[in-house]
Amino acid sequence: MFTGIIQGHGNLINSKNNLGEVIIKTELDLSDCKVGSSISCDGICLSVISIKNESNKYFFGVNIGEETFKRSIAKYWDNNSKINLEKSLKVGDEISGHFVYGHVDTTLNILKIEKLDSSWNYYFSTSSSSNYNKFIAEKGSIAINGVSLTIANVKEDVFDISIIHHTYNNTNFSTLKVGNSVNIEFDSLAKYIHSKND
């Protein structure tokens, strides 16, 4: 389990031509992680299968299975990708975001990016599946590429989120462009409520 507060970034160091082990390099301190630990990579909960420290950088390996590959943006990762990283929540840690499980529900494309004086608005459409609309509520929580965010506005099949400078500069939102796909995890509470009522 995670909180959606990004702690660092990683980059692939091996070209990902097929499924299997992917190696990610990061300057995030992973001294408290080991084989079997969970790390959120762009909001995907992945298990560490190898880890080593060289010259103050960590190199950890993860497996990407077919379901994850199909459902997430992992299929688009390359050696230039900036991947949001968060270590798993420990008992007693501060929960600054919301409970994020690292189970990606779908991917959505960015419709528009609007630069304001002190923030950015990112717009997304759910028109590809109206089933998602029931999980989206103004001022509700959502995780996008593993980042805990608040839904600002909802209009029919479009919703937007607001990104402040800190989030923009400390996540891969600064690298995203219109048309890019992002990982979406809807708020687990909303999913459980609707699953009981459906």
Q: Approximately what portion of the residues adopt beta-strand conformation?
A: 35-45%
Helix content: 10-25%
- Taking all residues together, what is the mean pLDDT? 90
Strand order of the largest sheet: 1-2-5-4-3-6
Description:
- With 198 residues, the chain is mainly β.
- Helix content is 11%, strand content 42%.
- The protein contains three helices and twelve strands.
- It has helices spanning 66-71, 165-170, 188-197; strands spanning 8-12, 20-26, 38-41, 44-54, 57-64, 83-87, 106-115, 119-125, 141-144, 147-155, 158-164, 181-186.
- Strands 1-2-5-4-3-6 form a six-stranded antiparallel β-barrel.
- Strand 10 (147-155) and strand 11 form a beta hairpin.
- The radius of gyration is 17 Å and the shape is globular.
- It starts with 7 loop residues before the first strand and ends with a helix.
- The relative contact order is 0.20.
Keywords:
single chain, 198 residues, mainly beta, 3 helices, globular
Give a short synopsis of this structure.
This protein is mainly beta. Helix content is 11%, strand content 42%. The chain contains three helices and twelve strands, in the order E-E-E-E-E-H-E-E-E-E-E-E-H-E-H.
Write the layout of secondary structure elements.
Elements: E1 8-12, E2 20-26, E3 38-41, E4 44-54, E5 57-64, H1 66-71, E6 83-87, E7 106-115, E8 119-125, E9 141-144, E10 147-155, E11 158-164, H2 165-170, E12 181-186, H3 188-197
Antiparallel strand pairs: 1-2, 1-6, 2-5, 3-4, 3-6, 4-5, 7-8, 7-12, 8-11, 9-10, 9-12, 10-11
